[in-house]
Amino acid sequence: MSRVDRFWENAAQSPLQIVKMPLFAEHGVRVYFKRDDLLHPFVSGNKWRKLKYNLLEAERSGFTRLLTFGGAYSNHIAAVAAAGQATGFKTTGIIRGEELTEVSNKTLQYASQCGMKLQFVTREAYRDKIALAADFGTDCYVIPEGGSNALAVKGVQEVMGELQSQLNASFDYLCTAFGTGGTASGLISAPADTKVLVFPALNIQKAEVLQHIETFVELQGKKIEVLIDYHFGGYGKETEELTRFIADFEQQTLIPLEQVYTGKMMYGLVDLIRKGYFRRGEVIVVLHTGGLQGKRK
Ligand SMILES: Cc1ncc(COP(=O)(O)O)c(C=O)c1O
């Protein structure tokens, strides 16, 4: 068995946990959390799912170095650095922002400690990823920003088999945060009567979100809803209300959330429940996509 196989084989499937809050009981909905955040401290959540088949492919094709892209606080950069180190790949991370260094924050420090070679580029240069990949990594296996590609979608789809065996019943909704669309695209393989609820962490129009998803999967005949009102001012933005919500939620449920993705999604879901979006008796599954390495304490 290869090192990549071993790394992914070693983890048990992530737990499915029912979450109890007075509001859920009041509205008669059952909410489950698929705790992918528990899969690994750094290759966590959707990163675990999205990297699996990419690293297997990189290994099969004989690559020894992975190259990828990310912003200063990218969970994806931390995950590629950790997965590369654990499975024997060298790694390069192209980071947006020429003013940054290896010690600018915890994420970059961690990636660097895992042995990732960090290349800091201007925001302008960062836009042309094809040119950057040609400059820095002709012999690298290139993973796109956020890790979203067809192999990532295949990895995310594995959530469905686990849910079927863990829940052993149909569920009405499956919720995810959205950044680049790979995760939502994988979840679209949910049973036809399950509606996928997508919560963008950035200020983006619904049509654009659907376009992103459609670059990976066919949406015809699928039930999907994009909730664009829970971005809190845009990517990486946070308000006191969101901070307070996360602290309250964590205290009540003991499930940690972070401020960039899962906190916003959960705020949105709770708001929808409060507004009566769901019918009594409906079952909602929330995918915890991890990202806790980037959590601001
Ligand atoms: C914690 C977390 N949740 C959700 C997402 C969004 O996933 P995607 O980029 O596949 O839409 C990301 C970013 O990739 C993330 O780091």
TrEMBL record:
The keyword Chloroplast belongs to this UniProt entry's keyword annotation: no
Any matching Pfam family: PALP
| An example Gene Ontology molecular-function term | D-cysteine desulfhydrase activity
Concerning InterPro entries, the annotation shows:
ACCD_DCysDesulf, TrpB-like_PALP, TrpB-like_PALP_sf
Q: Describe the family membership recorded for this protein in Swiss-Prot or TrEMBL.
A: Belongs to the ACC deaminase/D-cysteine desulfhydrase family.
Q: Which UniProt keywords apply?
A: Pyridoxal phosphate
- Modified positions (N6-(pyridoxal phosphate)lysine) are 47
Q: Which residues form a coiled coil?
A: none
The answer on whether this UniProt entry bears the keyword Hydrolase reads no
Cofactor(s) listed: pyridoxal 5'-phosphate
Q: Active-site positions, per UniProt? A: 74
- Annotated Tryptophan synthase beta chain-like PALP domain ranges read 17-290
Q: What name does the UniProt record give this protein?
A: Pyridoxal-5'-phosphate-dependent protein subunit beta
Quote the PANTHER family the UniProt record gives.
Answer: 1-AMINOCYCLOPROPANE-1-CARBOXYLATE DEAMINASE-RELATED
